[in-house]
Write a structure and sequence with these properties.
By secondary structure, the protein is an alpha+beta fold. Helices cover 50% and strands 15% of the residues. This is DUF8048 domain-containing protein.
Length: 129
């Protein structure tokens, strides 16, 4: 990834530092992970109402973070043919970014249960109204 990249990875609402940590933890190339996150983010757009029905959410800096059942996470990621290490890195990046978002709000005292996953999705202008 270039040094002049924005704080969020391309079109995915994941901070570069989070991408690098998830890549390091799973042994994947950060650029490959960033590409997967962009692809995955495109599939998440428009699913806000589904995620809102399934769990809690917070909005921070035009990014909505959800705490959803792990089964919902598995359903969404199942549509992708990511290799297992990339799949795990995508999961870790979303989980960390969601935890950071929740931690920056009044909901900070509520952690994620073992059967919950974090997912983050950008909020476009139309969805804010």
């Amino acid at each position: 990834m270039s040094d002049d990249s924005p704080s969020e990875t391309r079109e995915a609402p994941i901070d570069d530092a989070v991408v690098h940590r998830a890549a390091d933890e799973t042994g994947v190339d950060p650029d490959d992970l960033a590409d997967a996150l962009v692809e995955f983010n495109a599939a998440l757009l428009g699913q806000h109402s589904k995620f809102e029905r399934e769990g809690d959410h917070v909005t921070v800096d035009d990014v909505r973070a959800y705490r959803i059942p792990m089964s919902s996470w598995n359903d969404v990621i199942a549509d992708f043919s990511f290799e297992e290490d990339i799949r795990e890195a995508v999961h870790r990046a979303h989980a960390e970014q969601a935890r950071l978002a929740f931690a920056s709000t009044a909901d900070a005292d509520e952690g994620f249960a073992g059967d919950e996953a974090g997912v983050v999705v950008g909020v476009d202008t139309a969805e804010q109204f």
